[in-house]
Amino acid sequence: MYVQFTKKTIANTLMSIKNINKGLLLASLFFTLSAPASAAKKDLIQEITIKSKRQSADLKNKIASYLDEVSITQGSISIIADVVQVYSQIDDKTKIESDTYLAKGNPAIFKQQLEDGSLISLQANEIKYQPDLNIITVSGNAQVKQAGSKVTGETITYNTLSEKLEAISSDNESVTTILQPAQLKAQQNKKTNDSDN
After folding, report:
1. Distance between CA 88 and CA 62 in Å, rounded?
2. Is 74 in contact with 43 (CB distance < 8 Å)?
3. What pLDDT sits at residue 163?
4. What would the DSSP string read from start to end of 145-159?
5. What's the confidence (pLDDT) of residue 164?
6. If you write DSSP's letter for every residue of 170-186 in order, what string do you get?
7. Residue 24: inside a domain, yes or no?
8. Which of 49, 15, 20, 29 is nearest to 127 (CA)?
9. Structurally, how many domains does the chain consist of?
10. What pLDDT score was predicted for residue 161?
11. How buried is 99 (Cβ within 10 angstroms: 0-12 exposed, 13-18 middle, 19+ buried)?
12. What is the CB neighbour count within 10 angstroms for residue 142?
């Protein structure tokens, strides 16, 4: 499978990676139930570097593929996957074209250091980001970790606009959330102390 590759796709890819960071950050806030934290703003203005063993482009169909040991970095943001593809598709209902970024691995991993110094990590067999639709979906052994807390399920979907998250289990499994009370209390105390100053 190849991804269409144009100047617009490259620019959209850069903006989408920036938007992915925002969405993943918002998901981390939901999971830890802590005071709001934002993605390190400096990450969003850093250059994006994509490294892989192989890269290919289908210019006619506007598909870019990065293959084998793919590493994407932007500031403190890191995405590690076996394959990353970038392509555009037209929504059947709205007839609007949107870009999709698809990372696959065993697992594919997204990490970012937040402004408060904590690290958020999302991993799954597949990470699908649709910036124009404000949706991030991690599926296949999906998990999100931050500040010692963890949510696991078969599929986790996060809407970056509404800040809503949904975790779904497979047929015979449960969605599991593990919260670390000591770390949550420390974060709440920090929020209280920060608001008092």
Report:
1. 7
2. yes
3. 55
4. EETTEEEEEEEEEEE
5. 67
6. -TT---EEE--HHHHHH
7. yes
8. 20
9. 1
10. 56
11. buried
12. 24
Contact between 155 and 171 (Cβ < 8 Å) = no
Low-confidence ranges of the chain (pLDDT < 70): 1-41, 43-44, 114-115, 131-132, 134, 159-164, 183-197
pLDDT value of position 58:
94
Which CATH number goes with the domain that contains 165?
A: 2.60.450.10
What is the span of the domain harbouring residue 56?
A: 7-196
Is-contact 103 136, C-beta < 8 A?
no
Q: Do strands 77-90 and 119-130 pair parallel, antiparallel, or not at all (unpaired)?
A: unpaired
Q: What is the CA radius of gyration of the chain?
A: 17
pLDDT score at 38: 44
Extract the tokens encoding 184: 């949550």
Element (H, E) at 191: helix 181-196
For 148-159, how does the pLDDT look when each residue is reduced to its tens digit (9 = 90+)? 888 899 998 876
52-85 burial, b if ≥16 CB within 10 A, otherwise e? beeeebeeeebbbbbeeebebbbbbbebbbbbbb
Q: Is residue 1 part of a domain?
A: no
